Amino acid sequence: MIKFIEDKKIFHLQTNNTSYIIEILPSKHLGSLYYGEKIDFENDYERLKLKLGLEMGGQVAYDESDKVFNLNTAFLEAPTYGKGDFREPMVHLRHRDGSRITDFVFHSYKLLDHKPKINNLPETRAFNKETLKITLKDKARNIFLNLYYTPIQEIDIIARRAELVNNTENDVLIEKIMSFNLDILNQDYYLKTFDGAWIKERQINNQKIYPGIYKIDSKKGVSSADHNPFIILGKEFTDENLGPAYGFSLIYSGGFEALLEVNPVSILRIQMGINSFDFYWNLKSQETFYTPEVLMSFSSSGFNRLSLNFHDLINQYIIKPEFKDKKRPVLFNNWEATMFSFSQRKLIKLAKKAKSLGMEMFVLDDGWFGERNDDKAGLGDWYCNKKKIPLGIEGLAKKINKLGLEFGIWVEPEMINYNSKLYNEHPEWVIRHPNFKPSLGRNQLILDLANPEVVDYLDNVLSKLFSEANIAYCKWDMNRNFSDIYSQNITAENQGKLLHLYMLGLYDLLNRLTNKFPHVLFEACASGGNRFDLGMLYYMPQIWTSDNTDAHSRFLIQYGTYYGYKQSVIGAHVSDSPSQQVLRKTPLETRFNVSAFGLLGYELDITKLTKFESEVIKKQILYYKKHQELLQFGDLYRLKNPFTTNEMQVITVDKEKREAILGIFQTLEVPNAKFDLIKLPMLDKNKTYKISVRKQYFNLDMFGYLIKHALPIKINAKSILFHLIKNRYLFSAEEDTQIVKGEVLVNKGFIPKQPYLGTGYNENIRLMGDFGSRLYYICEVNNDAKG
Ligand code: GLA
Question: For the whole model, what pTM was predicted?
């Protein structure tokens, strides 16, 4: 709902639970007046205004007719530099005469009954939603700034973006243009960011905001694992279920910045957009520049609600409608099993085993094309290496399909190796400066997607691949960051555009391919999670979260990722133990339990499994398939934070609160541990639930010498017999089934069986061990169909 209250010069935007209020100031600048819990339309807007009573020392009066008003203490929606606002501008322009003064004031507005599409950029698909377009005009020139606001009522999200229109006769140089600006009063806010590196993506950082400027950004040309383009503001006391929280997410996959500034009068400025570092854009007469869209959300009931708003946004309005609520297959990926060294025979052996374990898709990862026997060659040559795969991709796909599996393939189209046919043919297609020897990342160079010829070439070669073979899935990888940023295809004055033009080229390519092959399930990847953002999700409905598949590292990474992203987009595979990334040993059941809160896959040499492992994996997959919808699409709540405690707890609940799966994980075993009591406020207090633990199995190895107490027969833990038994014997963990009233679960909590107490073991004990975990299926008693 959007309302313009004309006599008060107020725009009031409402979602189901929030209000966003903008005012036209007497100076005609656009002001941020309120963002928070919903207030009604009849509100006394005057009472929302924070204004100076007297001229303030050190400020510059905007106009001599009002000595008190100055831009530096105003709350603004679209600030610029040059008229007394000394903070970071949202838009910074360099004009023909060398001036950098721009002054945007209100010009007009329109209430549109739809959300206009943005040229070539990913965006929310809320096209039928009412949209407010406010046009500002520079006081001295025919330069216009259009601001768009689209409330998406049911999920408490407002989409925002800006457009700069140059209606002058001359070029204007854009030095900075953010997607939005919001000024609010800083009331001891804390900032949560999701930062990391390769194999350590989206770790949570929480810090108090102080006067000054704080910025996270990526200069890597991709959104990056260093910082995610998603931030949260909350109070010190805000927790998962209580307290105010604001979230901001940028729909962009290139270099970005998120900036916070607190000025001396405690106004907090928030901005996000394309990174202004090393960016400049020469906007010609009559041209328009489009910023990416940003999504804002406010929750008055903690971080879980805020996250759920973004989760629903992703499933309803970001990913392609074909994949909305569409169950994702349990897949096998050969990367961690074989890396580059595989034969056709080995692949088929793996596929047969995958089928026998219950998997649904076989994905052939890196190494199938050109002369790709290691990571030094082949990128660019997207045709099958018949020495490795005599059947060709078409034949292999047929063979895999015959086994009863779908077939998927890995590509890394944005990249090229020196050692490739494509480089010999088109050395000029590479991003580099002719006078410098280019620096390499993973031995590779980046193709210049700002060049339409390159985009056309990739479109053709990949369309050929996707139409010749029966390909149901494609992992789209991207394994290096940008250096040597120069295009031989762009004039000197336009070099500052290169990284954004690259993104536009990439988005164009993805648009063409995903529309041409709508049935192909694309999974984005960038050395794991180096490009995990809403821009990628617009084209590819899931993302490979991290190259780190160690269960413990993974639950930290996934926990951080859940803040901004739904589990239905989070690729999560079970791999071998010890893990290849941290050499840590974790139980097979925990590796599954972690992956179950994402899109399950297996990525290890399954032809070498023991009987124990094969049997356990079969049961895991059956369980996952039985609850696939709930695990992939249920509402996910965080209960316990592994960054600050020894535990992680999460729960996924269906919208009607009829069923749920609770996951409890611990890092290290705690001697003589306390009782557990797990409060579940997200369940329905008027229902009665049956709770049953997923039947899990231990490897006897876990017990060591204690085995003589756990098994009915006496056996020496060092004997050969023991070694033989442990790889075959499935030792069941405790049974735990309870009928509990919802009001107990909501008000007091769920009490699982008591944890291990040392030395003794029986079926009333919940033996977890280091990195142990359990899943509990919870369902309304008269909805017990799945049991
Ligand atoms: C990247 C990906 C991995 C794998 C390799 C193949 O690192 O993140 O999953 O596909 O490339 O080279």
Answer: 0.97
